[in-house]
Specification:
By secondary structure, the protein is of the alpha+beta class. 32% of the residues lie in helices and 17% in strands. The protein contains eleven helices and 14 strands. The chain binds zinc ion (ZN).
């Protein structure tokens, strides 16, 4: 896997060509535009990567993954049967980052500690549902399927949080952002705001302080609205508290809670929070969990690139100080 230490700080991009981003590589490929393509003319023959001016993609998905033994690969294959889209082989893939970080906590049985630290409350026996795929049933997590139906979503366009975590105390939904931001509006009408408002016997009015159109179109919180609505409804029926976590880069959306909170009916059993990848890095760096792969994960955070902007290499996480979680 290539990162900040293996890639050129800047690459030359012309109208017709792009140079390979790997250090010391002399190869130049044809410049591709618009949607990303994996054609031979965009591939560096020495490094086996497909190149665009802003990112690159590995030959195999596993080239971009830290954890890809037999069990991991089988799980990823199974996830793809329900997951909508996957660009996991690309350097700037949010899904790859999500997998590389959370799969390790799951594999090492240390997720309860991380979640307890992030949520500032005890969490026990967490079970992870990646991109709506339930490892126990081998399909879409059934409560989510029911909620999608209840609120008028078609399965193919249904809400799909990156991670759903079911624990003894709480239902936790995590939407992980690395390149994207939380401001979203419906892009593919028809969509049905009335169905969101009417579903679950009008659950919307227990969950929000505003109407769907204001939240969606004025505030641009379409995705978070759906997660908060469906997640809180499922949690209520399961007698669990609900936490919706927006996991973002430290530098992005510092005012997110202030933007979102006015629209939500929060309570002692229902909360929205913004967490950052840097907090997770600090948690690992602080050595609370001493799994053998700890150094691999720290190196990943420190070395992770996010493609190029105007020819300049972008660092994903600005992680230069190893401080304890929530030390300030
Ligand atoms: Zn190359």
């Amino acid at each position: 896997m290539y990162g900040l230490r293996e890639l050129k700080p800047t690459i030359k991009v012309t109208e017709a060509s792009v140079e390979c981003p790997v250090l010391d590589c002399m190869c130049t490929v044809e410049r591709q535009r618009h949607s990303f393509r994996r054609d031979a003319r965009f591939r560096c023959p020495h490094h086996g990567i497909y190149i665009s001016p802003s990112t690159f993609e590995y030959e195999r998905e596993t080239d971009n993954l830290l954890w890809c033994d037999g069990d991991d690969r089988a799980l990823l294959q199974a996830i793809k049967t329900v997951k909508r889209e996957s660009r996991i082989a690309r350097d700037n893939s949010e899904d790859a980052v999500t997998w590389n970080v959370f799969r390790l906590f799951e594999r090492t049985d240390t997720l309860a500690g991380l979640l307890s630290a992030l949520l500032c409350r005890p969490i026990s026996n967490p079970r992870v549902i990646y991109w709506s795929y339930d490892q126990q049933s081998g399909g879409v997590w059934e409560p989510l399927s029911r909620a999608r139906q209840e609120f008028g979503e078609r399965d193919q366009r249904g809400s799909e949080p990156d991670l759903i975590i079911v624990s003894d105390q709480s239902l936790i939904w995590i939407e992980a952002k690395v390149t994207a931001l939380n401001e979203t509006r419906p892009s593919n009408p028809p969509y049905s705001l009335p169905a969101y408002e009417a579903g679950g016997n009008g659950w919307f009015h227990h969950a929000f302080r505003s109407d769907p159109s204001t939240i969606t179109n004025t505030a641009g919180l379409y995705e978070l609205m759906r997660f908060w609505l469906l997640g809180s409804w499922i949690a209520e029926h399961a007698c669990l508290s609900f936490h919706l976590v927006s996991l973002v880069l430290d530098r992005q959306e510092p005012d997110l809670v202030g933007r979102v909170a006015p629209y939500l009916q929060e309570s002692v059993r229902r909360a929205f929070l913004r967490a950052t990848w840097k907090e997770i890095y600090r948690y690992v760096a602080a050595g609370t969990e001493l799994f053998p792969e700890r150094e691999d994960l720290l190196h990943y955070f420190e070395n992770k690139s996010l493609g190029y902007r105007a020819g300049a290499l972008q660092a994903a996480f600005s992680v230069d100080e190893k401080l304890p979680l929530r030390a300030s």
